[in-house]
Amino acid sequence: MFFALKGDNFNGNTFADTALKEGAKYCVVDEEAYSKNQNCLLVDDVLQTLQRLATHHRKQLNTTIIALTGSNGKTTTKELINAVLSTQFKTSATQGNLNNHIGVPLTLLKMTADIDIGIVEMGANHPKEIEFLSTIALPDYGLITNFGKAHLEGFGSIEGVIKSKSELYEHLKAHNKLIFVNENDATQLKQTQGYDHVFKFGTSANSDSKIEIESTQPYVTLKYKGQLIHSHLAGTYNFNNIAVAIAIGNYFKVELHHIISAIESYIPTNNRSQILEKGTHTIIMDAYNANPTSMIAALENFKQLENNHKVLFLGDMFELGATAEDEHQHIVNYIESNDIGTTYLTGENFYKTKVTKQGILKFKTFDDLKEELKQNPIKHKFILIKGSRGMALERILEVI
Q1: Neighbours of 124 (CB within 10 A)
Q2: What is the mean pLDDT of the chain?
Q3: Range list for CATH 3.40.1190.10 in the chain
Q4: CATH homologous superfamily for the domain 274-399
Q5: CA–CA separation, 145 and 77 (whole Å)
C-alpha cells in the first residue's frame, strides 16, 4: 500500500499512478485529481490517515509496547533492549532512527499479531511532539534515557527539553502505566516523584535492579547479580543505556545468562561509540550525532582513558539556535582546561570560537581539515571523533 505523503520538495500524490504500476495494491491519496480508479483511496489527509491507521492497528494487536525517548542514546538503548528481550520473546523494534511522526506509525504498522513486545523509539525537536507520538503508540511501559542540551533551537532551553521529554511520563501517568526510572538521574526522580507505578534501577542497593559500573577501559564493564558483563560499548555514558536494558530484562524475567549473552554480543554500528583500528590508529568513532551534553560526556570519558597520544576531532553541534556560540565556546574552554590532547575543530561555529592555547587547530570546512591532514599526517594516535550528523566526520577515516 502506497501512502502519498507530502514534503517541502515533493508531492507523493504525483507518484500514485507509478506506484500502482510498480505493484502497489492500493494508493492512499488526498488530492482528487490523482484518485483515478478503485485502487486509489481518497482521504482528507494522507499523513493523518497513516497515523490513525497505525493507532488502530496497535489496538488490534495483543502486543506490549515499550516507548523510549531522551536527548542522547535512544537508538543504542533501543537496540540493547531489543537484544535482551528477543532472547525470550518475539520482538519488533524501530528500525534505525525512524522515530518521528512518520517513523513511529511505520514502526507500529510493521508489527504482526505474533509480536510479544514492541520497542518504539520516539524523537522530538519541539514541544508537544512526544505527547502526540504517545497518543499514536499508546505505550504500556516507558523510559527516558536522559535530559540534555539537544535541539535547543526548538525547545528553547534545558527546562524546555525536560518538560517536552517528560510528556512521555505524563502520558504514562495518565493511563497508570509503568515507568522505568534511573535512580542515578535526579531529574528522572523529580519528574516521577509521587508516582508509584515505577521500576527503579541504578547503583543503589534499594533499586529494583542494582547494577554497578566496574570499568570503562576502554569498554564498559558492569556488575549485576554478582556477574561481570563485558560490553563492546565505549564511554561511561553508555553505562545507563546498558543498565536500563538489563533492568527491563530483569522486569520481564529474562534469564540472567540470556541478559549477559545479549549485552556481550551487541556490537555497535553506525558510528555510535565504536572502537576501530585504522592503520596505526585506535579510534573511538562517535560521529553519528552530537549536542553539548553528549560532547562533554564523550570528552570526560576520553580524558579518563589511559593513553599518552590522544587526538580530538570535533565537529560543529547543530540545532542550538541562539545558544550555539556560547555552547561551542564552552567546549573549547573545557578542552583548554583539561589538556586532553591535540585538537582539530571543524565547522563554522567552532571556527568562530576564541582559542588561547596551543594544540587546538580550527578549520572552517572539512576540506580545510583534510588539506591540513594531508600536509601534516598523524601517526600512532588514540583518536576521538565526535560531531553532529551533518558534519559527517567519519570521512576523516579516509584521510588518516
Answers
A1: 25
A2: 94
A3: 48-265
A4: Mur ligase, C-terminal domain (3.90.190.20)
A5: 8
The per-residue DSSP string of 230-259 comes to EEEEESTTHHHHHHHHHHHHHHTT--HHHH
* Residue 51 identity (one-letter amino acid): Q
End-to-end C-alpha distance for the chain, whole angstroms: 46
Written as nine digits, the cell of 46 is: 494522507
Q: Is 54 helix (H, G, I), strand (E, B) or coil?
A: helix
Closest CA to 65 of 159, 178, 155: 178
CB-based contacts of 188: which residues, under 8 Å, 6+ apart? 144, 181, 182
The 10s digit of each residue's pLDDT in 316-354 is 999 899 999 999 999 999 999 998 999 999 999 999 999
Strand pairing class (281-286; 178-182): unpaired
**Sign (positive or negative) of CA dihedral 232, 237, 239, 244:** negative
| pLDDT of 304 higher than 90 | no
Tell me where in the chain the CATH 3.90.190.20 domain(s) lie: 274-399
How does pLDDT run across 370-389, given as a tens digit for each residue?
A: 999 999 999 999 999 999 99
Beta carbons of 295 and 385 less than 8 angstroms apart: no
Helix (H, G, I), strand (E, B) or coil at 341: coil
Q: What is the DSSP string of 88-156?
A: TS-EEE--TT--STTHHHHHHHT--TT-SEEEEE---SSTTHHHHHHHHH--SEEEE----S-SHHHH-
Read off the amino acid at residue 75.
Answer: T
What architecture (CATH level 2) is domain 48-265?
A: 3-Layer(aba) Sandwich (3.40)
Whether the CB-CB separation of 213 and 222 falls below 8 Å is answered with yes
CA distances to 102, 179, 188, 189, 191 from 194, rounded to whole Å, are 34, 12, 12, 9, 9
pLDDT of residue 151: 77
Average pLDDT over residues 389-399: 94
Q: What is the pLDDT of residues 13-62, one digit of tens each?
A: 999 999 999 999 999 999 999 998 899 999 999 999 999 999 999 999 99
